[in-house]
């Protein structure tokens, strides 16, 4: 039942109605501006995150966006009303746009199997280029051109209103070129990789023709109804862009008008000298092409098509916005307001509630019906770790978990479970093995000293209020998790002033369920589980990425035995695979997707699946001959020798993907203030300062937490959606 609204939260003269999205730098709110004589209007408030408010680089980026857009007064550019400063943080008030992004439009078109009409494509292109040209022509107070380059033109940043207008969004990474080359090249790539220009990939000085290239990508994708430069890795994307790997869209959609196609292909020229000299020149060429092809250009085609594919959704949003004036919105109502709002947002599709609830899984032929992956490891029954769970204060064991394993010397056939998806960035950080008894003794003394110090400090921590429980999956014996994570939870209690219980769940599925049911405040979710959970519950909030030995990403690997006569993926057809868990990203999903990319249907290609339960056990099972290939990630493979896994007997056959580290994600039920409190406390955690150690635990190896952006998961999200559509297509073909 909707509840009566509490006292409003105010930012200046703006009353916040609901949070729309949270990104790595800022958060977005739907708000109501109250004016004189009872006048009011809806606005969107973009506020820099409080924990970044004192970081000069983030503040400058935020203020630069406001200064740039505030000078732009054009119907095809989102309008800025005000830049303000309230409660020690900055905010931007901008117009509320009732409509959908081009990205959403493409997704809805794909779902409804209705291709975007070419007059709609031309109309979106013409309007977008008008707004882009206005930005490129922006001048300072002395009338001198600023040489602005947007640098992030993509379907996510083009908004179509319900009346057919197109507006350019998100100037957060825009740069001027008048000051120096440094203005456009700071050593960091800005923008979405799949929409970069060749000169962006090569770190060259940029001009307006860079945005022309990106606009060409957008038009190509609308024509072909598929991604142009999307590849498995960022490096592959940049190589494709630099190499000019852009076939004509008519190769995929035979009815693409010839003149329109020529405009698109010229915009995609690798050499900027071969492209259109400006967005204005490209706009005129596009209008000429539309006339030659007999296309209608204007607001009417866009409005009509938006009504056709999204009319019902937009009406729901309109009604929901009206309700927000009167009362607190329900979770379902807030979900209706979520849409792709640019690179600073958690990108949300209006199709979210229409997607299947079931995530595609690998074939489970080896296990009996209803058998969980962990039950096929050789243990049966209710197997629990040695020792009483009552002796582990603050630990909630949510059901069965694998038998206890030694931290120092694993028994034969058992492996110390390792945290899901941990690993050094790119698999490049290699850790040294301990040398000699002396080093072991020193390490034990350091850890023991830290734990004693923490235990002595515990009495000084006073906590009160509602607990902020954080859930962890049982990738390690609960007693090991308790030992390694207790110091972290104590520091979080110190930082928040609240109880922060450590909750160990039965498995990954149980972890996600507890988060969505509101039984825990936050959860440490691996990448795929985060994406899937967010699809089902869009209001969960990404707080931070866990750092593993300083890295925030890792490679997914497919391993085989060193002496196996297997040199190519096709050699594995009909063989047995060791996989980890159905919700494991690198241990299940990515190898399946990799097989699809190689042209194989996983359910037919894989002869049998052996569920190993964790990454270390998967490598052991491979070495012992229980399977012919094992899926894991770079961190587990590189650290296996520390747990007496003879990694010299196995080798990498393929890198199946590149993924972010585990996320710390807040549930939808906790307040915005509590979510921000947890985020700030996580980002402030430094084991050196707090505990006097370089990392937390020999297994978890936590060196801190990093700011997280939902955009880092966009590639994974798109791959999951593509696999779902492929499986639906296969099922449909089978029914013919």
TrEMBL record:
Residues 365-381 have a biased composition (Low complexity). Residues 14-287 form the Protein kinase domain. Residues 340-429 are annotated as: Disordered. One of its GO terms (cellular component) is ATP-binding cassette (ABC) transporter complex. It comes from the Bacteria. Keywords: ATP-binding, Kinase, Nucleotide-binding, Signal, Transferase. Its EC number is 2.7.11.1. GO terms for molecular function: ATP binding; protein serine/threonine kinase activity. The keyword Isomerase does not apply. One of its GO terms (biological process) is transmembrane transport. InterPro entries: Kinase-like_dom_sf, NEK_Ser/Thr_kinase, PhnD, Prot_kinase_dom, Tyr_kinase_AS. Residues 341-351 have a biased composition (Polar residues). It is an enzyme of class 2 (transferase). Belongs to the phosphate/phosphite/phosphonate binding protein family. This is non-specific serine/threonine protein kinase. It comes from Lujinxingia vulgaris.
């Amino acid at each position: 039942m909707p509840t009566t609204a509490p006292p409003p939260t105010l930012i200046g003269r703006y009353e916040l109605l609901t949070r729309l999205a949270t990104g790595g730098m800022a958060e977005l709110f739907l708000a109501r501006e109250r004016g004189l004589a009872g006048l009011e209007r809806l606005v969107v408030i973009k506020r820099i995150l409080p924990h970044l408010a004192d970081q000069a680089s983030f503040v400058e980026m935020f203020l630069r966006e406001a200064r740039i857009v505030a000078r732009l007064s054009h119907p095809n550019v989102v309008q800025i009303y005000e830049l303000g400063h309230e409660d020690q943080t900055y905010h931007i008030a901008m117009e509320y746009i009732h409509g959908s992004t081009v990205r959403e439009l493409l997704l809805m078109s794909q779902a409804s199997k209705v291709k975007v009409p070419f007059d709609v494509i031309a109309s979106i292109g013409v309007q977008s280029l008008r707004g882009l040209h206005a930005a490129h022509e922006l001048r300072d107070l002395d009338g001198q051109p600023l040489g602005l380059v947007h640098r992030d033109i993509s379907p996510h940043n083009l908004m179509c209103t319900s009346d057919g207008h197109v507006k350019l969004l998100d100037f957060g990474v825009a740069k001027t070129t008048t000051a120096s080359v440094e203005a456009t090249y700071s050593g960091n790539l800005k923008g979405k990789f799949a929409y970069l220009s060749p000169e962006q990939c090569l770190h060259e000085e940029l001009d307006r023709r860079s945005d022309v290239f990106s606009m060409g990508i957008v038009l190509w994708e609308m024509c072909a109804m598929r991604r142009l430069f999307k590849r498995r890795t960022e490096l592959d994307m940049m190589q494709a862009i630099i190499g000019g790997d852009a076939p004509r869209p008519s190769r995929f959609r035979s009815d693409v008008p010839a003149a329109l196609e020529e405009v698109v292909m010229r915009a995609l020229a690798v050499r900027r000298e071969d492209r259109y000299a400006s967005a204005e020149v490209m706009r005129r060429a596009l209008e000429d092409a539309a006339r030659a092809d007999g296309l209608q250009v204007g607001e009417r085609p866009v409005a009509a098509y938006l009504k056709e594919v999204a009319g019902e959704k937009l009406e729901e949003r309109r009604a929901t916005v009206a309700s927000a004036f009167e009362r607190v919105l329900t979770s379902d109502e807030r979900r209706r307001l979520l849409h792709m709002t640019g690179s600073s947002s958690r990108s949300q599709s209006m199709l979210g509630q229409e997607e299947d609830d079931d995530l595609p899984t690998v074939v489970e032929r080896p296990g009996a019906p209803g058998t969980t992956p962990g039950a096929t490891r050789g243990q049966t029954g209710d197997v629990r770790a040695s020792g009483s769970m009552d002796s582990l204060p603050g630990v909630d064991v949510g059901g069965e978990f694998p038998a206890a394993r030694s931290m120092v010397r694993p028994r034969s056939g058992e492996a110390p479970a390792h945290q899901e998806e941990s690993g050094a960035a790119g698999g490049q950080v290699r850790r040294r093995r301990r040398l000699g008894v002396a080093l072991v003794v020193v390490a034990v003394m350091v850890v023991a000293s830290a734990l004693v110090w923490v235990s002595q400090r515990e009495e000084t921590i006073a906590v009160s209020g509602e607990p902020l429980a954080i859930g962890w999956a049982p990738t390690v014996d609960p007693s090991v998790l308790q030992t390694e994570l207790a110091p972290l939870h104590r520091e979080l209690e110190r930082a928040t002033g609240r109880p922060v219980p450590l909750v160990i769940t039965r498995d990954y599925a149980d972890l996600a369920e507890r988060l969505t049911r509101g039984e825990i405040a936050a959860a440490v979710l691996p990448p795929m589980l985060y994406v899937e959970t967010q699809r089902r519950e869009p209001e969960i909030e990404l707080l931070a990425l866990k750092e593993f030995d300083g890295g925030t990403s890792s490679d997914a690997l497919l391993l085989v035995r060193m002496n196996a006569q297997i040199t190519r993926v096709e050699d594995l057809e009909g063989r047995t695979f060791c996989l980890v868990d159905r919700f494991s990203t690198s241990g299940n999903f990515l190898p399946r997707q990799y097989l699809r990319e190689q042209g194989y249907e996983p359910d037919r290609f894989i002869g049998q699946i052996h569920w190993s339960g964790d990454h270390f056990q998967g490598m052991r099972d491979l070495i012992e001959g229980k399977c012919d290939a094992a899926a894991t990630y770079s961190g587990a493979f590189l650290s296996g020798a520390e747990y007496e896994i003879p990694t010299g007997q196995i080798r990498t056959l393929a890198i199946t993907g590149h993924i972010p580290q585990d996320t710390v994600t807040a549930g939808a039920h906790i307040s915005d203030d509590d979510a921000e409190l947890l985020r700030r406390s996580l980002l402030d955690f430094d084991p050196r300062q707090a505990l006097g150690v370089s990392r937390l635990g020999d297994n978890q190896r936590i060196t801190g937490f990093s700011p997280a952006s939902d955009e880092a998961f966009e590639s994974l999200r798109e791959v999951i959606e593509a696999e779902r559509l492929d499986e639906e297509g296969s099922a449909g073909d089978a029914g013919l």
